[in-house]
Amino acid sequence: MTEPVALEITRPEFWAGDLFRIYAAEGRVVRLDVVTGVRHRGIERLAETKSWSRLIPLLERICGICSASHPAALVRAVEELAEVRPPERAQYIRTLSCELERLQSHLLWFATLGHLAGYETLWMWTWRYREELLVLNERISGNRLIPSLIVPGGVRRDLDGDMKDDARRALERFRPALDLLDSQLSADPVLRSRMRGIGVLDEETARKNGAVGPMARASGVALDVRKDDPYFAYPWVDWNLSLRADGDVQSRAEVRLEEMRESLDICVQCLERMRPGPVLADMPQVPAGMAVSRVEAPRGELFDCVVSDGSAAPVRLHIRPPSAPNLKALEAVCPGTDLEDIAIVLASADPCTGCAERVTVIDASGAAGPDPVRLSRDKTARSRPA
Amino acid sequence: MSWKEIEKNLLERFADDFSEWEWSGTSRVRARLRPGALPATARFLAESGRVRFISATALPTAAGAVDVWYHFDFYQTAQVLSVRVTAPQDDPVLPSVSDVWPNAGWSEQEAARVFGIRFRKDTGASRAAGRQKEKAG
């Protein structure tokens, strides 16, 4: 076999600076390294300087697509420490916000899939229907993305007036998108040929690498925090877990599509079942202690560990996003993959560097390690066309 | 094997190594473990087939040492087990569990970069010591 060649591939238009170092020989991937540290923003360190309520604007900017999930994980931990039970209506609104996020995130993923498969029309279709969801988000929360709804103790604002009926109608207008995606996944032979049998992650490897979310469920691992460790209004609504066994890109697409159908039904149930009432409970001072919490973000289990010393800000906030173990699982999946399939395989994990970015120690003298600013400039220089 | 059985077997097998075992609510357990017992404990949990590594949180203590909390999930339940090991201030070395759980490597890398902890790969010597203990137990 010829000596492997290292390829550094960046996809700034979708993944905002993911850096996958791919070693390839004879048209196949020999090894994949996930290299992080260039988009580190000091979120966890910054969190130690923010009061509990002011953490929300910080955390919802970790990722533009998981901007409801990060605050959701935080408030779960904070409310456990403070022994606060948010009002029932707030739990339904939180669930609605989280499921709307899942819908628009999965739609964005389908757009990426279409683009990488050369199926630009699919991208345009998903973008048209995603607009319905973003307009609905704006109606409910005031923002298209980054809803800023979930706060410690409840939600920041209520659904009032005609919002519920408007939301129901918007969700029904969105429903044909799922049938359209279903028809493409099941009937389009070109799309299927790009996904079926590609990028297989078997169940054992998925478990060993700690894969979560659709990446795991497509490999037969029945993990979902909404079922395993229910929170918000998930115990009060009816929905089914989406599971496949083949572990290929097609399976991941089918799981996401099924999840979107379930999300739509969850949203409708939340709108129908929520009763009038308050949406925010009083929050006492957060006492000293440690709490762990998790939520099912669109990419999988998002885990927070929060430590308080009884003061106004956390002592420690540790965030384990779902993309971290999923990127690790990709390192196991990619060897043996044909180079022409690698983009779709990497995309099938729905990686998010905004969430998964790990730490780099900053030392102006350069003594402690690489300077992240220089790393970023070097990476930009490598990304420019020759 | 149920979570209760795993808990019982874990506490029997590593009775001398756990100094704390505390329930918080119905689904959260916090424990303190001797650092040298970490690889064997990790292997025991992995071999149960029902436990999953979630993440590891490094947390400096007031005394100047660093606690590393290893968080584990029991599949398809709300159970989270958080195991604390302390890296001493004068020699911050802990055994690595990334051979057992590959995704633990990222957490260890983070703890190494931010808090200066060195993670030592498990050698055959420590595995042999674990087997000796199993035979004796």
Describe this structure in words.
- The complex is a heterodimer of chains A (386) and B (137).
- By secondary structure, chain A is an alpha+beta fold.
- Chain A has helices at residues 12-15, 43-47, 55-59, 69-82, 88-116, 120-141, 163-187, 189-195, 203-208, 213-217, 225-228, 249-273, 323-333, 342-348, 353-356, 372-383, and strands spanning 5-9, 20-25, 28-34, 150-151, 154-155, 288-297, 300-309, 316-320.
- The longest helix of chain A is centred in the N-terminal third of the chain and has 29 residues, at 88-116.
- Chain A is globular.
- Chain A starts with a strand and ends with a helix.
- Residues 10-17 of chain A have low confidence and may be disordered.
- The radius of gyration of chain B is 14 Å and the shape is globular.
- With 137 residues, chain B is of the alpha/beta class.
- Chain B has four helices and seven strands, in the order αββαββββαβα.
- Chain B is 34% helix and 34% strand.
- Chain B has a five-stranded mixed beta sheet.
- In chain B, a hairpin with a 5-residue loop joins strand 3 (51-60) and strand 4.
- Chain B has helices at residues 3-13, 38-47, 104-115, 124-136, and strands spanning 18-24, 28-33, 51-60, 66-74, 80-87, 93-95, 118-120.
- Classes of the chains: A alpha+beta (386), B alpha/beta (137).
Percentage of residues in helical conformation of chain A: 40-55%
Radius of gyration of chain B over alpha carbons? 14 Å
Computed structural class of chain B: alpha/beta
User: Which shape of chain A, going by the Cα principal axes?
Assistant: globular
Query: How many strand elements of chain B?
Result: 7
In terms of per-residue confidence, which ranges of chain B show pLDDT below 50 for 5 or more consecutive residues?
124-137
The main sheet of chain A comes to: 3 strands, antiparallel
The most extensive interface between chains reads: A-B, 33 and 30 residues
What class, by secondary structure content of chain A? alpha+beta
SS element count, helices of chain A: 16
Number of strands of chain A: 8
Distance between the termini of chain A: 29 Å
Q: H/E element string of chain A?
A: EHEEHHHHHEEHHHHHHEEEHHHH
